[in-house]
Every structure is written in C-alpha cells, then in structure tokens.
Amino acid sequence: MHSGQANPKLLSNPNTAHSNGFRVGGVSVGIDGQRCDDVVLAPSLQPFQIQADAFDVNIQIEWADRLSSSTRMPLFDSGAIWRLYEDAARFRFDFESPSFGDQPYKRLFVDAAFRQATLQMSEESFASFPQAVALEYPLDELLIMHRLTQEKAIELHGVGIVGPDGASNLFVGHSGAGKSTTARLWTSLHDVEILSDDRIIVREHPHHKDDSRDDATQIYMYGTPWHGEAHFALPQRAPLHRIFVLEHGHGNVITRLSRSQAVAELFARAFVPFHRHEYLDSALIFLERVAESVPCYHYSFEPDRRAVDRIFHFND
Q1: ω into residue 225 within 30 of 0, thus cis?
Q2: pLDDT higher than 50, residue 225
Q3: Domain for residue 29, yes or no?
C-alpha cells in the first residue's frame, strides 16, 4: 500500500493485471489496475467502452491507505467535490465529499499534456463503499475536457440531433434554455438520433485521405455520457451541418449570427478550463474555425411541434 504522499510514476504499468478502455468525443482512455474492480466502468460509460492497442490517455489505478488533504492553495476550487493543484510540470486533482469523510477519497496525478495519469484511491475512504468505481462523474468529464484543450475540439452545452433526412443540427443553450425539451419534441415527431441532450463535443476531423485539398476537414459533433433530463447519450458522431443558439421566445424566429457573434455565443456555452489562459486562447481559435465552417443561428422558439417543423423545413 501507499501512504498517498509519495509522487507516483505517471507511466502505465505494462504488467498490470486488468485493463479496460472507453472513448468519448474522439478521445480514448485506457485504464490499468491490479484489481478487476479497478477497471470497471460506470454505467454511463459502458456504452462508450472500446478495446484498443493504444490510447490517447492512460490511467494507472493505485490504492493508498489514506490520502491527506493539502495545505496549499489550490489552482482552482470547483466549490463542490474537487480541487486542482499544480505540481511542477503536472496537475493534481483532489476529490473530497462528506460521504467519504474529511480527507480526499481519490487523487489524480496527470501530466501537462493530459496523456499519462495515476489515480490513487483511498482504502480508508472506500472501506464502507466496496463497490467503488474509479472512473466516474465528474472525473471522467474533467479528464476528457482537459484533454480536449490539446486538440482541435471543445465541449459545448447542447443537444445534438441527427434528423431522418440526415441533417445534423446542434442546439446549444444554458441550463433551462430548452435542450431536453427540444430532444423530446424531436423524438416524439420524427425518427431521429439524439447524441446527447446536454453535452456535445465538437471537433475537427479530416476528410477521406484521398481528398487532397488543404482545407479538407469537416466539423463533427460527438455524443457524450453526460446527459440531461431527457437521458439521451449515444457513443456516435455525425458531421455538423448547423448550430442553433436556443432561447425561449415567440414565433420560432431564426436569425443568422455573424462569425464574431457565433464565437461569443458558443464560448459562453462551452466547458473550458479557466485556470490557464492558453486553454482559453485555443478554445477561441477553434470556435472561430467552427463559426467559419458551420452556419450559426439564434433560435427564439416556442416549445411545441411548430418549433421542430420550423427547423425541419429550414433552408439556409
């Protein structure tokens, strides 16, 4: 056992007894552990499970007798169950909850590129919770969200819908803007795929290798495990055709947004780590690319079937 105070190695152990993996938003995560239970995926992640020879992110699970709280000032405090600390060229996430006592119940060490990580689990904290799941919310989302800062991708607060005509629309909005309502309306009227009704990952993806154009890229949207009230979450992706910024209103009015307006609206509904300015800069640069490639609109809608018909028969 470990005391939880020593700095663990960040490289995955090739001799680990058990392994598992999942992919969200084009980011693959491999999990290694000495116990079978260490690598069990949370129910929300199971549809995203994959097998692969190599992963974008590698996590080694270790167990410590006890993890002690830090006396240092955190780089970021979520105000909920996790705090972020910076330690030389890597980061440390501490997770605490009254349910597990007054010490961290798990601790993630990860390199600056978010590729190699060690997750320490507290034996003391989990003594009363024998069915501990190492990778669960919010750790899974935190890991993916931070990894996306290293790629041409971003997580947005939105519902992704692939219509019966093949058109793929992303409806972004703050909490209460009508995302889950929109998902329910579409599924009640048409045979559609809802990739997620709350959080969608948008990323740039190259076209087929035979396409020799310099700008041969396509913006895709990906489903995530982190669903909203309507509980839609699929491990699929689809090319993104349009983006609508949702707002409750009257008349189902669609207004085209300029590139700068689109970037501002999308950034306001993005999940971006705010503790490093370079993450914000890269997010804005990528959103400019999205706004250049995908038509973006403001949609003031009424929550009935006319709102669906308005989009279904909409032509740019």
Answers
A1: no
A2: yes
A3: yes
Whole-prediction pTM: 0.91
DSSP string, 257-297: PPHHHHHHHHHTTEE---S-HHHHHHHHHHHHHHHHHS-EE
Same domain, 61 and 187: no
Same domain, 296 and 178: yes
Q: What percent of the chain has pLDDT over 70?
A: 91
Helix (H) or strand (E) holding 312: helix 305-312
Residue 11 clears pLDDT 60, i.e. is over it:
no
The pLDDT of residue 272 is above 70: yes
Residues 69 and 164 in one domain: no
Supply the CATH number for residue 244's domain. Answer: 3.40.50
How many structural domains does the chain have? 2
Q: Indicate whether 94 and 172 sit together in one domain.
A: no
Enumerate residues 6+ apart whose C-beta is below 8 A from 223.
Answer: 160, 195, 196, 200, 233, 234, 235, 236, 237
Q: Tokens 């006890």 correspond to what residue?
A: 66
- Residue 12 placed within a domain: no
Q: pLDDT-based confidence at 165, cuts 50/70/90?
A: confident
Residue 21's DSSP bridge partners are: 30
**What tokens appear for 149 in the block?**
């800062």
Q: Which long-range CB contacts under 8 A does 96-100 form with residues at least 24 apart?
A: 96/69, 100/125, 100/126, 100/129
The per-residue pLDDT for 250 is 93
- 132/210 same-domain check: no
Domain coverage including residue 34: 18-149
